[in-house]
Structure formats: structure tokens, C-alpha cells
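Is zinc ion placement plausible here? Inputs below.
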Amino acid sequence: MTPPSIQPQPCTDPNCRGRHAPAERVALAVSLCGARGAQLTRLRRQILEMLWERGRPTGAYDLIEALKRRDSRPVGPPTVYRALEFLISQGLVSKIESRNAYVPCAHPERRQDCLFFVCSNCGESVELEDPRVEQLLAQDAADLGFRVTRRVVEVEGTCATCIAAGAA
Ligand SMILES: [Zn+2]
Ligand SMILES: [Zn+2]
Ligand SMILES: [Zn+2]
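Reply from A.M.:
I modeled the complex. C-alpha cells:
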């Protein structure tokens, strides 16, 4: 659990690549939910903490297993899926559809688009913000008369670390 001394620090680094201290981002989620009147229950917060601590796309069943180990109280899949839906609706978590896995959103305070580069070799993901992509998608949507409710862009491939290590 996060000690109360940790204060949320809004991100000001456009090149942070989504790298933030998990405890600080969880503290930020607590304050955002408080301000919105959204209920960040113990389970929802635990799941968010686990996703931040892992720092890579994680499937719902891995979360269920980790919760079992942490609490020794089994949590049913529907409960975990409902908690994930809540976290997604608050912009705190994104679902990587291509991997059927979940990652914490680096900047829930900004409600910007999530652009993920996912390595199919090691499973790591990096979250970027690119206003150019955002503008293009907004323009395309406007041309179509389409109202966007969710935008998650996923790019799959091999990360620089894996390329350097000689993986495909
Ligand atoms: Zn940041
Ligand atoms: Zn994001
Ligand atoms: Zn990799």
C-alpha cells in the first residue's frame, strides 16, 4: 500500500515514455478518483498497483493468480473484469487488444490518446504521446462524422533491447 507521504506529481516531461514511479501514479489515481467522485475500491486499487509494478501488459488470469497469492482470498474472474472495466472507464488502464492484456495508462490526468509499442519477443510495452497521431485521428473522425469514445493505438514489433540482444 502507498504510504500517505507520496504526493501525485503531474507529468511535465514530454519524453518520459510513460516511465513513472508506480506509487506516485497510484497516488495520482487515488486523487483523480476522489475529485471525480469515483470509487477506487481496495480491489481496484490493488489491481492498478499490480499493473504499475509489473510495467508490462498483463492478462486478467495473471492478475487473478497474483491476487490469490497476495490475499489468499480467491477473487472470481467476473469481479476482476468489472474492476478492470472501471479502471479503463476512468482512463487509468488501457487494454492491449492484440495481447488481451492490460497496462496502466501513464497519464490519466491528461486524458490523451494512448499509443503503445509492444514487443512480441519480451512482452514489454512503451507508451508514447504523439500529438501528430492524435490530430490525424481527430481529422479522420471529423471527416467521417464519427464520434470517438476510445482511442488506443497498438504497434507490435521488436524492441530496441531485443534487437540489440539478437532476437528476431
Ligand atoms: Zn510522463
Ligand atoms: Zn495512456
Ligand atoms: Zn523486447
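Short version: Helices lie at 22-36, 42-54, 60-71, 77-89, 131-144, 160-164.
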